[in-house]
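Model it.
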Amino acid sequence: MSFKIAAFVFPLGLDTLALAIALGLRGFRPWRPALIFSVFEGVMPLFGIGLARLVSLRFETAAVVAGGIVLLGLGIHSFREAFRGKKEKELEHISFSSLRSFLPAGLAISTDELAIGFPLGASNLPIPAVLITIVCQTLLLASLGVIVGNRVRAGLAKNASRYAGILAGIVFVLVGMWLIVERVVPRLLHPFGSG
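Modeled.
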């Protein structure tokens, strides 16, 4: 169970790290982005989790496969964004300077968590444990990423941010494939059940 939680949470952490390094390049201090990332990344999955739990009651296998497909799409999107350097460009307009700017900034940085909520809900993982892990990891990696972005050369920080984003995309794809294979292959091998 803990491996499965880590499989979901690890790529989110890489994505958070990539965004935080890019924010550090802009000179942000770590505490505001880290707190805002943590709040939004802890709350946004709840929407997808609720929907997945509702769908899973009636269509469990379809919900898990759909969740795997969502992760495949999220992984491909994350990979392409990082490879093309789009994350840094999107972050140019994010501000944490006022309370009014927190909401758009929080929504902009937590789209991956919104998308991962459905696969999380369909996978029957212990949601409180997963959300606590996401929030703690986010607080730590967002702070670390902003500090790294503030302290290292711009070229090195951009490359670190890009590589973290690419790795996050690859891991999302692998977890999505794992969910699909884990659910579909046993059904193909034993189409009429075990008895």
